[in-house]
Design a protein that fits this description.
The complex is a heterodimer of chains A (274) and B (403). Chain A has 274 residues and is an alpha/beta fold. Helices cover 48% and strands 14% of the residues of chain A. The model of chain A has no long low-confidence stretch (mean pLDDT 94). Chain B is α/β, with parallel strands linked by helices and 403 residues long. Classes of the chains: A alpha/beta (274), B alpha/beta (403). The interface between A and B is large, with 43 and 40 residues.
Chain lengths: 274, 403
């Protein structure tokens, strides 16, 4: 059983919604990433989403764009993402890691080499923002060859026909982008999301994560009642940018934020069963 | 080429030209692209829509644009006869309006009241703001902060036309970043907004749709050349940034295998310096802005900054159909430096009394070089894609003249 499957199975048994923090590799400086990953697990992160920087992040708002620019200023490449995961795995072999990135660096490395490198490092799933299932046949085959889950996004604009298409190829979990917009956009409408999730669940039988627009503990708590996982990105990355240069401060502020979210999610009560 | 290629059949249903093209966008846009593809497929064969498009091209844009035999220039060069396809004489001063008319009609047919556009040199932004004014639509144009500096007259023109020009300060602050920002706007406002892409790049159906709207250039040139000379041209030359004026001229000639085709990229300070914008000449295939194509990229797959004196060519990618035409050998892609383009700018201005855009000056520079190697009975069509009024500040600056 893959780490992702195992983790969701355990969470399901405990009626617990996963908390998935997103950070950009090497942001705001390379030394932060590894200790922060471990600290986030301590603070209640169930899965970690690790960004791979790209020069032209079309789906991201200013917060993640700037994080990518900071990471790229250190020359951060896919191999650096692999390296940090490899180091993380020396002491944590349970927490699943999802890489989120754009297709071009992966194309340039080659699908097979990428999948092999990612698997060897200990990456469990890949979100490729600009790779829809229609173009992904060879890519998915390469990932599957190395037991990496292709995690696909669903959007408010996704029709039921497309949901079925995505369900046919997605594994690990599916990620519902809860608003029309880029990462870090205005806050989401929880009631609307809940209604949408009911429809998505008719097609998507694997765990469902929700992200985009989850800025604080209160929103995380509300969303957690209808999701298998809550993804928090820009809210964390903003904190990190504000404390650039001070690793201890970054770790404290991020773990405080995650701790508050975890607590609020627990207080919101058990997840509504699927 | 051993077997006959049905150029009209491409792209395939998923938008592929060989391995190029396709649709590489975030999930939020997939449905919008499906709707656009379906709407375009419907109106492409709708006689009423096409009649309105043709009428606008004739009465609003001023088509057909002339095919002008540049006799004095041809004599001076001493080779093939040079013909200029005068897209500079279109309303708003470039070929860009052919496409924005088509997409604005489509936006109206689809019930969208807000249009967005990206722009480099500002020509596409002006052409978009123009059609928005005419159709009474809201218009937002994304433009790199650096390009706003370089193309101040066009920025003011857009504002006069009622568009909001949003400076883009991320990345290299040029056309590629403006495209990123326009995509972000589209993702956020996808229900109300029609994104008018200005070139033959982006996710399917844009490369095919923009090509179809621009192909009027080549259809006219083909007919005009036959009327004026009794034969097809021997060669075609056009500049290639994203490549819309080039594909517009080339496409109706693709099956005429005797007609040689040359696309001219921007060599900037020289290909060897790395400071250029010539992905077909010096780049590699990759995925950017929704399509697979040749790109200027690092070994890690990051997009690298480009340089050209011409803002309209300063782009690290190129339309996927050009990538495919290069690979199959139907078209040749060459590059012209800033200095060569500037020399051609002055040559055309002084010899023929036509001030070309800096983009088109790249085509002029290569066309003149090519003409010199050909006998006088041969005919060469150069696409004069835009007029140079917008560039006079840049030219003056380079020459140390204060206007």
């Amino acid at each position: 059983m893959s780490r992702l499957e195992q983790r969701f199975k355990d969470l399901q048994a405990a009626s617990r919604t996963a908390l998935i923090p997103y950070i950009m590799t090497a942001d705001p400086q390379p030394e932060v990433t590894l200790p922060l990953m471990h600290a986030m697990v301590q603070a209640g992160a169930d899965i970690i989403e690790l960004g791979a920087p790209f020069s032209d992040p079309m789906a991201d708002g200013p917060v993640i764009q700037q994080a990518a620019e900071r990471a790229l200023a250190f020359g951060t490449s896919l191999r650096d993402v692999f390296r940090v995961v490899e180091d993380f795995r020396k002491t944590d072999n349970e927490t699943p890691i999802i890489m989120m990135g754009y297709l071009n660096p992966i194309e340039v490395m080659g699908y097979a080499a990428f999948a092999e490198g990612a698997a060897a490092a200990g990456i469990d799933g890949i979100i490729t923002v600009d790779m829809p299932p229609e173009e992904a046949e060879d890519y998915i085959a390469a990932l599957r060859e190395h037991d990496i889950d292709p995690v696909f996004l669903l959007a408010p604009t996704t029709t039921e026909a497309r949901m079925a298409k995505i369900a046919a190829v997605a594994s690990g979990f599916a990620y519902y982008v809860s608003l029309k917009g880029v990462t870090g956009s205005a806050s989401l409408n929880v009631a609307e999301v809940a209604a949408r999730v009911t429809c998505i669940r008719k097609h998507i039988k694997i765990p469902l994560g929700i992200g985009f627009g989850i800025k604080d503990a209160a929103t995380a708590a509300k969303v957690s009642t209808c999701a298998d996982a809550v993804v928090v990105g820009s809210a964390i990355v903003t904190q990190m940018a504000q404390n650039s240069g001070n690793i201890d401060k970054i770790i404290t502020t991020v773990t405080d934020l995650l701790g508050a979210m975890r607590q609020a999610m627990a207080a919101a009560g058990a997840k509504i069963p699927n | 080429m051993s077997e006959k290629i049905d150029y009209a059949a491409l792209p395939d249903a998923a938008g592929h030209f060989g391995i190029y093209g396709g649709r590489f966008v975030s999930e939020t846009l997939m449905q919008a692209l499906d709707e656009l593809r379906d709407a375009y497929a419907k109106f492409k064969h709708d006689a009423k829509f096409q009649a309105e498009f043709d009428r606008d091209l004739a009465q609003y844009v001023g088509r057909p644009s002339p095919l002008y035999h540049a006799e004095r220039l041809s004599r001076e060069v001493g080779g093939a006869q040079i013909f200029l396809k005068r897209e500079d004489l279109n309303h708003t001063g470039a070929h860009k309006i052919n496409n924005t008319i088509g997409q604005a009609l489509l936006a109206r047919a689809m019930g969208k009241r807000r249009i967005i556009a990206e722009t480099g040199a500002g020509q596409h932004g002006v052409a978009s703001a123009t059609v928005a004014a005419r159709f009474g639509m809201e218009c937002v144009v994304y433009m790199g902060a650096e390009d706003i500096q370089r193309q101040a007259p066009n920025v003011y023109r857009m504002k006069l036309l009622g568009a909001r020009v949003v400076p883009v300060t991320s990345g290299s602050k040029t056309l590629k970043d403006a495209l990123n920002e326009a995509m972000r706007d589209w993702v956020t406002n996808v229900d109300s907004t029609f994104y008018i892409i200005g070139t033959v790049a982006g996710p399917h159906p844009y490369p095919a749709m923009v090509r179809d709207f621009q192909a009027v250039i080549g259809r006219e040139a083909r007919r005009q050349c036959q009327e004026q000379t009794g034969a097809l041209p021997d060669a075609l030359v056009a500049c290639v940034g994203g490549g819309s004026n080039a594909i517009g001229l080339f496409h109706p000639f693709l099956e005429d295998e005797a007609v040689k085709i040359y696309g001219v990229e921007a060599a900037g300070h020289g290909i060897g310096t790395g400071q250029h914008a010539a992905p077909l000449c010096a780049g590699k295939p990759g995925v950017l802005h929704g399509n697979r194509t040749y790109l200027m990229e690092s070994d890690d797959g990051q997009i690298i900054e480009t340089h050209s004196v011409s803002a309209g060519l300063d782009y690290p990618g190129v339309g996927p159909e050009h990538a495919w035409l290069k690979d199959i050998g139907r078209a040749s892609y060459v590059a012209i430096t800033d200095n060569e383009a500037l020399a051609a700018f002055h040559q055309l201005t002084r010899v023929e009394g036509i001030i070309p855009a800096l983009e088109s000056s790249h085509a002029m520079a290569y066309g003149v070089k090519l003409a010199a190697t050909l006998p006088p009975e041969q005919r060469l069509i150069i696409n004069l894609s835009g007029r140079g009024d917008k560039d006079i500040n840049t030219i003056a600056g380079i020459e140390g003249i204060q206007l």
